[in-house]
Each structure stands twice: as structure tokens, then as C-alpha cells.
Amino acid sequence: MSTKIIAHRGASQLAPENTLPAFQLAYELGADVIETDVQLTKDQVPILIHDESLKRTTDGYGYVKDYTYQELKQFDAGSWFSPSLKNTTLLSLDEFLNWIKDKPLCLNIELKNNKIDYKDLEKIVYTMLKDYRLLNRTTLSTFNPWSIKRMKKIDKQIDSAFLTSRRRKDLVGYAKSLGAHAIHVKYRLLSRKLVDRCHQEEMAIRIYTVNKTINIKRCINLECDGIITDVPGKARNIIKKA
């Protein structure tokens, strides 16, 4: 099997996370999948940003949920990373899907609903993916177990992944009971036993956030289905030499 390279918020070590420059770089560097985070604006527009707050990655303040999409578009999402990227804006999910639709890339959309459980987030995102005909190459992931269950009610076939950084006695069994098709786990949880258990249950296992050479190589050797990384170019070079 081939371990897929999943660009974490794009090539986020080289460009501001979850922005078009980061996604474009990830594509050029050979990523197989683009991973991004979705939250809802005040006017119910899905927008790509990791934090519930604007403070870390824009020149704004307060919470994403308290602004309309047009208001959020006025904020600078690039200067914090580099002065040369000043005036880079946040992207809507619609803009992102329009960018990726004609590229040979898969998508991993993380629903950011574990802290703020946005009403109808699953349905809104699902409908957009369906409209763009991208359901067959998208994984929807979340830390929220109730969100996984809601996705199953919308479409049992949609590829969903349970995200976790916590140890659990039977993680694979628990994820299956929710209806998930995959688990996305923090690197420190990785073990041969966990990988084998996933594959016995025909469940994919993808690991985050894997940036160090030794860790990337370990994921490849253990035949993980994917690595979620800030450095997709580095990961591609390691896989080529493996």
C-alpha cells in the first residue's frame, strides 16, 4: 500500500495555514490530499479557519461565529506569517472547492465543531460537496462523536474519520460504533498493534501531525494509510526514497 501525504492546512510550514498560498504550495509539492478546517460564520457561510478565535491567524479579534462572511473577508490572514503575504484573505469553503475541483487532489475537511457545535454544519458542508461532485474524494473528520453520528444520518456512505489524541481501550471498536470509516490519531498513539487492528477491521488509520523525518519513516514502515503533515514536500521526498 502507499501512504498518502495529507497537507495539514496546506503547506502550513511555508505559508499561512488554511489560505490559498498554502494550498497551492501543497499541490505543487506533491501532496495527495489537502486538509483544512471549516467553521460557520454568523450568516451560516462555511469558512476555512482552525481556531474559533480570529486572534492567532488574522488581524481581527473575537470569534468567527460573531462575524458575517463579508466582515471576515476584510481581515488580513497573511501578515502574521510574513509581511510579503499581507492582505491574504480567509477563504470560504465555496472558494476552496472551486479551486480544487479540477485538480487531482483528495480532500480532508475537518469539521471544527468540538468546542462550538455549529448547527447544521454537517448538512451545509455535505450539500456543497455534493453540488461540486466531490463527495467521492472527500473525508470529513471531527473530534465530535455526535457529529460522526449526524453524518451517518445524512449519508451512510460519506467517508468519515474520528479524530482523537486520547488513549482508549478499544479505539477502533468505538470509532466503528459511531459509524466512522477511519481514525485520525495523534502520533504518540501510533503502534503496530493499532495499525493492524484498523486494517483487520478494514478501517483506515491516518496520523497527525507528522513533520520529523524519523516519524514520517515510521508511519511509512508501519503502513499507515496517511500522514497529516505541515511539510508535504519533505514527506514526498522521503516516500520517493523509501
Shape: globular
* Strand residue percentage: 15-25%
Mean pLDDT: 97
Q: CATH superfamily, please?
A: Phosphatidylinositol (PI) phosphodiesterase
**What is the CATH class?**
Alpha Beta
Q: What summary fits the major beta sheet?
A: 8 strands, parallel, barrel
Number of strands: 10
Number of domains: 1
Helix content: 25-40%
Distance between the termini: 13 Å
Please, what is the oligomeric state? single chain
SSE string = EHEEHEHEHEHEHEHEHEH
Work out the helix count: 9
CATH topology label: TIM Barrel
The CATH architecture classification is Alpha-Beta Barrel
Main structural class: alpha/beta
Radius of gyration: 17 Å
Can you offer a commentary on this structure?
This protein has about 240 residues and is α/β, with parallel strands linked by helices. The chain has a single domain, classed as Alpha-Beta Barrel (TIM Barrel). The protein contains nine helices and ten strands. It has an eight-stranded parallel barrel with strand order 1-2-5-6-7-8-9-10, surrounded by seven helices. β6, α5 and β7 form a beta-alpha-beta unit. α8 crosses α9. The chain is globular, with a radius of gyration of 17 Å. The two termini are about 15 Å apart. The model has no long low-confidence stretch (mean pLDDT about 95).
Question: What structural keywords apply?
Answer:
242 residues; alpha/beta; TIM Barrel; eight-stranded parallel beta barrel; 9 helices; globular
